[in-house]
Design goal:
Helix content is about 20%, strand content about 35%. The chain is an alpha+beta fold.
Length: about 200
């Protein structure tokens, strides 16, 4: 492990832990939350085998359940898992090698909750470092997938539904990069979705 001081926002100082499977950077507030727990601190980043995804995660991820990059990020303090950081921010970066011809602008990172809802995180692929970088306020298991729709904002109430429909092949979008969530569904669209849900008989 390589540990170094890291400058956070507004000049605050946190800590950055570089590991073979990724880097975790805690800002000043997050670091203080960890230190308040007491005891030795352990940070880990582990790439998980896709077979370890839960049935709920697999259902949400649909066609990408086998190809998604699954990363488990953990901070332990005194042997206890720290999942929240009192409003602090945690930066995570993981190595990622794009497939031939892959559009890395379509890459997104999600936290898939136990109930199947999706919590998207702010992040992007950094071609200079060869890593996908994202910010979070809690640690858990994250999945890196391809989701192309630029008109489906992360904070929208329908984000999870649009993601599920795309991942499970029910909708392919109105163009390669638009889902058109405000467009009225036509009878043809509805029939196509029902046909796909029925297994394309």
């Amino acid at each position: 492990k390589v540990i170094s001081a890291a400058n956070g926002s507004a000049g605050s100082t946190g800590v950055e832990v570089a590991l073979p499977a990724g880097t975790v950077a805690l800002d000043k507030t997050a670091l203080a939350a960890v230190n308040a727990k007491g005891g030795d601190v352990t940070v880990s980043v582990e790439k998980l085998d896709n077979s370890k995804l839960t049935e709920t995660q697999r259902e949400v991820l649909g066609k990408q359940a086998e190809t998604a990059l699954v990363v488990d990020v953990t901070v332990l303090a005194g042997g206890q898992k720290v999942t929240a950081f009192d409003g602090g921010s945690v930066g995570v970066s993981v190595p990622y090698t794009p497939k031939a011809g892959e559009d890395t602008s379509r890459l997104v990172v999600w936290f898939v909750k136990d109930d199947g809802s999706i919590e998207p995180k702010t992040g992007s692929y950094n071609a200079k470092t060869g890593k996908f970088e994202f910010q979070t306020q809690h640690l858990s298991q994250y999945v890196l997938v391809s989701f192309p729709f630029r008109d489906v904002s992360a904070g929208s109430w329908y984000y999870g539904s649009a993601a599920y429909a795309y991942m499970n092949g029910l909708f392919s979008g109105t163009t390669d990069t638009t889902f058109s969530p405000g467009t009225t569904m036509t009878r043809g669209m509805l029939v196509t979705v029902l046909w796909r849900m029925a297994g394309k008989p």
